[in-house]
Write a structure and sequence with these properties.
The protein is mainly alpha-helical. Helices cover 71% and strands 0% of the residues. The protein contains 17 helices and no strands. It starts with 17 loop residues before the first helix and ends with a helix.
Length: 350
């Protein structure tokens, strides 16, 4: 995804009263959200299974979490679709172009949190940053933060675990993105870009100072919901189904022994398992929820989540088009080291 359209929507009479529409939509959203627990219990009670059985426990987890996560996802994607009208690819490149490393790494990672880019956008974004003169390390800070510490991850973490875990993940993800980008920048690895990338002419990075009305921004939010939620909902359902199986059938003592604080190998094992997987924050967070409920250590679970969304194999395959193998290996090594450090530190202090 490379940006959100601000094209007017047909038959959009609601544009004349956008604030009223937002208020009604918010009231409907909160009403649905508050009804999820009784509805899930009612549905499970109507099925021919015992509520306290393994199957009953798994079904209640699934029937409650699917609408809950999809509601959270829809709400936050709509709101961030509005916010993202201020952060087009052109504006992002212009904000980062010509800035020095250090402070620029912080800015790049922060922009990665609020911009609507994912691993599928890696190559065009990378090329645009290179052409705009953005330093390589700063570019990596953005590319690490954008998929890992995105608005979807934060919203779902807040909805499922509360603001403390959401802020913890935000701080950890930004630290990994900033630190890894700064280290990669210090290593001066530009020579390991593919030759055709280094030969690209430099271009100026500018953006238009447009101020679309609220109705157009809401249209962009609806477009984001159709685009993002329409693509990720199968991963959400699949992740929740896997989480439901873990929640209902995996013994707590077993999982605590494998992914608990006492198992020193649990953090590198979680990273090793996470990298080959292809998912996004929306799909992996329900699995995280089930793992934590069964006794897995927080640091280990966060390391698993970070590796899945920041070092996914498909993204590395895409980046191979612009990076030589040595640079990809260094990128994976530096980011993995940061994720391992996060896992061990938080297993030690929490």
């Amino acid at each position: 995804m490379t940006g959100l359209s601000l094209e007017p929507m047909k038959a959009a009479s609601w544009r004349s009263h956008p604030r009223l529409v937002l208020a009604l939509a918010a009231a409907t959203w909160f009403g649905l959200y508050r009804s999820l627990v009784p509805l899930s219990e009612l549905l499970v009670g109507a099925l021919p299974v015992a509520r306290t059985s393994h199957v009953g426990t798994s079904l209640q987890f699934f029937l409650y979490d699917v609408p809950k996560v999809l509601l959270l996802l829809t709400g936050i994607v709509f709101l961030m679709g509005i916010v993202n009208t201020y952060f087009t690819p052109e504006r992002t490149r212009a904000l980062l172009a010509g800035r020095r490393e250090g402070a620029a790494n912080v800015m790049a990672a922060s922009l990665g949190v609020v911009t609507p880019f994912c691993s599928c956008s890696a190559v065009p974004l990378f090329l645009g940053f290179v052409q705009a003169g953005v330093p390589l390390g700063v570019t990596f800070s953005f590319l690490i933060a954008a998929p890992m510490v995105n608005e979807i991850a934060l919203a779902l973490l807040f909805g499922l675990f509360g603001w403390r875990i959401a802020l913890l993940y935000l701080g950890l993800g930004l630290a990994v993105a900033i630190g890894a980008g700064w280290v990669l920048g210090r290593l001066k690895l530009e020579r390991h870009l593919e030759e055709w990338v280094r030969a690209m002419p430099q271009t100026s990075a500018t953006f238009a100072h447009d101020r679309p009305p609220l109705g157009d921004r809401m249209a962009a939010g609806l477009h984001a919901v159709r685009d993002i939620v329409g693509k990720v909902w199968p991963y959400v359902v699949g992740g929740i189904a896997l989480g439901a199986v873990i929640h209902g059938f995996v013994p707590q003592d077993y999982l605590a022994g494998v992914m608990g604080k006492g198992a020193w190998w649990s953090v590198p094992l979680a990273v090793a398992i996470g990298v080959p997987l292809y998912s996004n924050a929306a799909g992996v967070i329900p699995v995280v929820q089930a793992l934590l409920a069964k006794g897995a250590a927080l640091g280990t679970v966060l390391a698993f989540m970070m590796s899945v969304v920041a070092l996914s194999l498909p993204e590395l395959v895409i980046l191979r088009k612009v990076l030589k193998p040595r640079l990809i290996a260094v990128f994976v090594g530096v980011v993995s080291a940061g994720i391992l450090l996060v896992g061990y530190v938080f297993n030690a202090v929490l």
